[in-house]
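Researcher: Batch entry, complex prediction.
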Amino acid sequence: MSGQNQYSVMRDITLFAGLGVLILIIFLTQGSVYSLRMLVEAGCYAILALGLTIQWGYAGLFNVGVMGFIAAGAASSMLITFPRNPEFWNSAGPELVAVFIVKLIACGVLVWLANISNRWGIGGKLRALFIAVAIAVAYLVLSDHMSEMSTQIEKASGWMGGLGLPVAVGWIVAGIVAGVIAWFVGKICLGLRADYLAIATLGIAQIIKHFLKNADWLTHGTLSVSPLPWPVPKPADGEFLLARASYLSIVAIAIVIIYLLLQRAYHAPWGRMMRAIRDNENASASMGKNVNGRRLEIFVLGCILMGFGGAMLIHFTSIYDPSGFIDLNHTFLVWVMVILGGSGNNRGAIFGAVLVYIIWVMSEPLALTLFEFIGTYGKAWFDWDPPSDLNSRALQMRVFVIGLAITLVLRFAPQGVLPEKQARH
Amino acid sequence: MNEFVFFLNKGLTSGLIIGSIYALGAIGVTLIFGILRFAHFAHGDMMTLGAFVTLILTAVLAAMGIVLPLPLAFVAMFPAMIITAVLAIGLDRVFYKPLRQAGAKPVILVMASVGVTLMLQGLIRLFAGVRSRNMFVEAPKEIFQIPFPGASRKLVITEPQVLLILFTIIAVIALHWFLTRSRLGKAMRAVSDNPDLAKITGINTNHVVWATWIIGGSLACAAGTLLSMDVTLKPDLSFNILLPIFAATIVGGIGQPYGAIAGGFLVGFCESLAVFNWAILLRPFKDDLWFEIPRNMALVPTEYKLMVPFLILIIVLIYRPTGIFKGRVL
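Model: Structure tokens for the complex:
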């Protein structure tokens, strides 16, 4: 680590003070209602960044499917908290869904039994055959039931509707669902090199999004669901200030709790072991540490935070729309936050999240103005006809900038602005 | 017989076409993975980039009033391949080489390639917009209808599809010849097998890296161009095509060009056969069957097509992470 990039308390204080001044300026110039909205969203992104920074910074896991875990969390939270759809509950729907869940569990057990059949002396080719047959049977049974169920539900009641439970339950379930998906992905890929995890998470994110977009019976598909309930009173008659401030305080409390727990874990023997595995996998394996087991733990933990943060974000915007989950906004933006803020440093992640989100929000009007300027003067000076979709193109500028930021930070400041504090024990 | 011809048209031809595209892409990915040791996430956008270079050259050729027996886009593809190869080397020089020299971990290179893919995506859409374009600037594409004995339905294949299949065959033979006969090709295989040993024996790693990017970049350009000639040129390939290509690479075994070809066709055929409606093939026998044929017997609904490469990937990672051709597990 070079001298310039050493961790220092002064640097920490200066950067956070600078961030505070920036937020203050935004409050003064843009008004508090707007700024509060931005801060709540930045706070939700901070939770996502914390989830990613423990995967990347503590364990060196490369997850490019953040968007998928956000989408899974958001969808499950929506299903838990949205008011009930009486048409669905009066139709044959609930029965079909219950049978589906029973079949799902049965198929899971079947595949699991085939998978562990080597314990009873069934090995080699026979086991492979068992597994293949079990998977095929499970797939046929489940897909058959699912197509039947989706047509029936769509015909009878449009979609399932929610369960109408409190928002807190929805957020916790969101974390659990994301964690369960992560457990399966991690179980398969974590024994292999980081690249495989990247490919698999990229794939799972696309598939979750495709599923949510097409499963009209479950999530209303692309028709989107709104309004999602809030854990605090919603802004009635234009009282945005109070409502948003109370939402912000909930997000802030969540961040503080998560931060304190993560700091404690980082300095605990568990965190020390994590860093040992990250820095020298072979050495820690030879000390008897279960490398893959620990990695699975931290991968699941990070994804739980992503599901939770994603649910918070979606509830705040109050509209669930599966087409709104985009790799750029929900995966790579979080990545920029983490590597810019300093991977392996929780304060860095929070700092990076808030700073990058502010820049991100500000960049949209900036890009539009810039291109309007180019369009006007290009026409006036060079007789250039700007294309009609100039505005949508201007926004592509941000894609480029995000990519550039990733490559530049990796090359010139791999430690980030707030580097990891090397703990000495 | 008509049903069988329909199956040939919809199931086999499309599998062959998309399989060739995946194979051309996967060759590049597998060589980069084997020699530079990282998963190149920017390959999908490199394909789009190559296709756009071709489109520009085609427009120039068409504006010059050149008429050729082949589609102009296909002719313009060859200079475009060279340009894309040069661009690929340039990207390597600016973004990957400094990281490699600084001794960065492979996963940092993967992240850098994600950054590169976003930059390419942003630039392409900034300059070209997001609408789809037709690669046939000068004339509509030719469609061959071949009569099939004993059927009234005709076998349909388009000119770009024929060109794609011919190009893939020639490219595969040329690659085989290059890797087994030429000095540089042998050096590439040596570096892929054991980089340290190859370096000690005096192989110039720089040349090997260049060769890797030239092959990867030019084949990516060809794949992108031929795919957009078959359908249309849309700048949204990137992540959608990346997953099947990675699946093909891993199925075939990392660092194994022949494996990548086999994997590409395997993934392509699985995809098109999985979404094919098998009920059509059973319909002629409907009187002899003991069950009623459902309306749709596709294994996977078309909207979940992406599931197929992903499932192949997962199954391979669980049961045979080395791939069919015994590649490495990095």
